[in-house]
Design brief:
With 114 residues, the chain is mainly beta. It has strands at 4-7, 10-12, 18-24, 34-39, 46-51, 57-59, 67-72, 77-82, 91-97, 108-112. A hairpin with a 5-residue loop joins strand 5 (46-51) and strand 6 (57-59). The strands form 2 sheets. Strands 2-10-9-4-5-6 form a 6-stranded mixed beta sheet, with no helix packed on it. Helix content is 0%, strand content 46%.
Length: 114
């Protein structure tokens, strides 16, 4: 069973930055399209960025120009650089395949507040 572990969240002020990490227990990033998701309190989990097996990236409109998804296939890791954070980015961030086919990890909490 593939395990996903997210890390790197924290409390930041508006305009701040973080780099989120997703570690997988097996080599999956070269084979599957992967996504970063987030779930804000009282809201459904949403896809914010994804990267295909050939490295093509895509972002939801609300994060374009502020978030950047990347991966290190050799290290079985994926990243999300989040810049110019806004209070509405506050959420628990998760990684998973694009079809949400793996068991969810615990996520990493990002809180944007002054």
């Amino acid at each position: 069973q593939v395990q996903l572990v997210e890390s790197g969240g924290g409390l930041v002020q508006p305009g701040g930055s973080l780099k989120l990490s997703c570690a997988a227990s097996v080599s999956i990033f070269r084979f599957y399209a992967m996504g970063w998701y987030r779930q804000a309190p009282g809201k459904q989990r949403e896809l914010v960025a994804h990267i295909t097996s050939d490295g093509t990236t895509n972002y939801t409109d609300s994060v374009k120009g502020r978030f950047a998804i990347s991966r290190d296939v050799a290290k079985n890791m994926m990243f999300l650089q989040v810049d110019n954070l806004k209070p509405e980015d506050t959420a628990v961030y998760y990684c998973n395949t694009l079809n949400r086919g793996l068991i969810w990890g615990k996520g990493t909490l990002v809180t944007v507040s002054s």
